[in-house]
Specification:
It is built from 5 helices and 8 strands. The protein is α+β, with helices and mostly antiparallel strands and 205 residues long. α2 packs across α3. The protein is globular, with a radius of gyration of 19 Å. The chain starts with 5 loop residues before the first helix and ends with a helix. This is Ribosome maturation factor RimP. InterPro entries: Ribosome_maturation_RimP, RimP_C, RimP_C_sf, RimP_N, RimP_N_sf. Keywords: Cytoplasm, Ribosome biogenesis. It is found in: Cytoplasm.
């Protein structure tokens, strides 16, 4: 897995955005999340338990704790109450993207190079719209996957432009779980080191 710096992730736009009421909710809460140091991954209003508003978000380093979820919920609830984008009662659910996460930013593909993904495109790419395979590379224009089950006559590798991407998600594997846990541990260690450094710089009263 390749590293992606915090600077590269700052204010990075999403490739995949919502429509309808989900888009309106995203437009309402994203300006609240960004100054707090979070980036929005996905908004989805479903009929689960009557109505559930699911907000997926994460820190710029990819981590997300229960405390982070609580902080986001506390911050966006008053704003949603004022704007009132949902015309019925709903349950607010704030979560991390999970290990088998949606892929919504260019940096997601660089960060998770070497792992399996399933994705769908909005237009035909190499005569199909659905793909499954390992991410072998990514650049500013798109990403390349190595298909795990290419059909007869198909090239084993295909380049998918980001402009054609409609949906993408990592596939849960033992390797992905291992790398995700390792990345999370490193990010939390870096956070702790930074907090200790700031404490040392604080004036002594």
């Amino acid at each position: 897995m390749s590293d992606t710096t915090t600077a590269e992730n700052t204010q990075e736009p999403r490739l995949i955005t919502e429509t309808g009421v989900d888009r309106r909710i995203a437009d309402i809460i994203e300006p609240v999340l960004v100054p707090m140091g979070y980036q929005l991954v996905r908004v989805r209003l479903s009929s689960q338990n009557g109505a559930t508003l699911q907000i997926m978000a994460e820190r710029l380093d990819g981590t997300m704790t229960v405390q982070d979820c609580e902080a986001i919920s506390t911050a966006i609830s008053p704003v949603l109450d004022v704007e009132d984008p949902v015309d019925r009662e709903y349950h607010l659910e704030v979560s991390s993207p999970g290990i088998d996460r949606p892929m919504v930013r260019k940096s997601d593909f660089s960060r998770w190079t070497g792992h399996l993904i399933k994705c769908e495109t909005s237009i035909l790419v190499d005569n199909r719209k659905r793909f499954r395979g390992k991410i072998v590379s990514a650049d500013d224009e798109g990403f390349t996957i190595e298909r795990d089950q290419p059909a007869y006559g198909e090239e084993p590798r295909v380049v998918i432009p980001f402009t054609a991407l409609a949906e993408g998600r990592l596939i849960l594997t033992d390797d992905l779980i291992r790398d995700a846990l390792t990345a999370d541990k490193k990010a939390k260690a870096a956070q702790a080191a930074n907090e200790n450094f700031e404490d040392e710089d604080s004036p002594i009263n």
